[in-house]
Amino acid sequence: MGTEYERILIPTDGSPEAEAAVAHAVELAARYDATLHALSVADVSHFHGLDADTSVIVEGFDEEARTAVDHVADAGAAAGVTVETAVEHGPASETILTFVDDHDVDLVVVGTRGRHGLEQFLLGSVADRLVRRAAVPVLTIPSAD
């Protein structure tokens, strides 16, 4: 018997890299009749403790995150896939890994920018952290760039 996926996660921030993975995630969810979870993480932690009203900035991050997951929901609906959306706050990779555990995700599909060498070493990537630390398979989809 082959692998079955019931819950697939696509983390998205609406970037071209994340968008490159949406079609793959939707196709896999349709193939396995799986629920597709679209998660966008707004890391607003660097605004905590500032002596200023940052609510407008945080609302902007939340709005962008909501737009990103709504796009996945629309793509899923067009393919007849059940999509559950979520917007959460926190460091991206840690928040995604927690979501994977909390929602019994079977597969993560994530877009990647394809950094190499020193740039990858210095900046790291969410996709890289997920591949190294997730307890489930992580399918990385390189952007077309």
UniProtKB/TrEMBL annotation:
Q: Which SUPFAM superfamilies match?
A: Adenine nucleotide alpha hydrolases-like (SSF52402)
**CDD domains in the record:** USP-like
What are the UspA domain coordinates in residue numbering?
Answer: 5-142
Gene3D superfamilies noted in UniProt: HUPs
Q: Which InterPro entries match?
A: Rossmann-like_a/b/a_fold, Universal_stress_UspA, UspA
Q: Which Pfam families match?
A: Usp (PF00582)
Q: Which PANTHER family match?
A: STRESS RESPONSE PROTEIN NHAX, UNIVERSAL STRESS PROTEIN UP12
Q: Belongs to which family? A: Belongs to the universal stress protein A family.
Q: What is this protein called?
A: Nucleotide-binding universal stress protein, UspA family
Native source organism of the sequence: Halogranum amylolyticum
Task: State the organism's lineage.
Answer: Archaea, Methanobacteriati, Methanobacteriota, Stenosarchaea group, Halobacteria
